[in-house]
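Sequence in, structure out. Go.
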Amino acid sequence: MIQGKIWTISNLLSISRIILMIPASYYLATPIPYHREIAILFILVAVSTDALDGYFARKFNEISNFGKIIDPLADKIGIGIVVVMLTIFGDIPLWFTLLVLFRDLIIFFAGIYIKSRTEIILPSLMSGKIAVSFLTLTLVFAVLQYSWMKSSFGLLMWFTIGLLTYSLFEYTRRFFQTLNEQKK
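Output:
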């Protein structure tokens, strides 16, 4: 693992994911023809950087503590921006947004607490990555609002809630397990 190295390909991809939210937000909020489709293109490019950053980190042995922080933080920032905007536009319910944000804040602050107590930066869990993938799909449906998507949006949203809840349970279990291991 690289200690202290920030400017790696994988970390730059994570940082670019945050930057890509600027044009995504602009097009989502600007009522021009196909603005939602253009916004989705930026969001999907951002999502692709999430897959690529992990690939490059492993391929070039660029795994770093900074990368373990910026990668999930970029996800949380991107998702946070999109869910808040979609709530403002009335495309998703407020309670769904609060659930997503509350889960992310719990995981984020638990990670900070673990780091402060143990000096360990825990990587993302696979259950969290799967939940975020379905959350992204749910948000794509909410942004595009094509008629064939509307009929399955509610089911997809509830399935995503189940995955988000399960992943939060897994993160909570690992949180207490890590603290207990450090006590020994």
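Check: The chain has a mean pLDDT of 91. The CA atoms of residues 103 and 168 lie 7 Å apart.
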